Amino acid sequence: MKAIVMLGYKSYVVDAAVAVKIAEAITNGERYEEKWRAGSDGGSTYHVFPASEEAGDGAAHIKFISDDLYRIAKLAGKPAE
Description:
The chain has helices spanning 16-28, 67-76, and strands at residues 2-7, 10-15, 30-35, 45-50, 60-65. The protein is α+β, with helices and mostly antiparallel strands and 81 residues long. It has one domain (2-76). The strands form 2 sheets. A 3-stranded antiparallel beta sheet has the order 2-1-5. A two-stranded antiparallel sheet has the order 3-4. The longest helix has 13 residues, at 16-28. The two termini are 29 Å apart.
């Protein structure tokens, strides 16, 4: 079985076991956020905090696909512009 891992606006196909490892790594990680402020307001601030403090913004998503769907998509190749 394959999985589609979506990070930001890009999607990647990986084995299901790899997708689980990615999900575990993200779950165990910390969040980083930069809050931009103008220099006249004291400048930007930088923050690191536990990922568990928020539900997430949907920037990372994993969905599983069948081997048949993977093979069909692989045959289709890169879409035309």
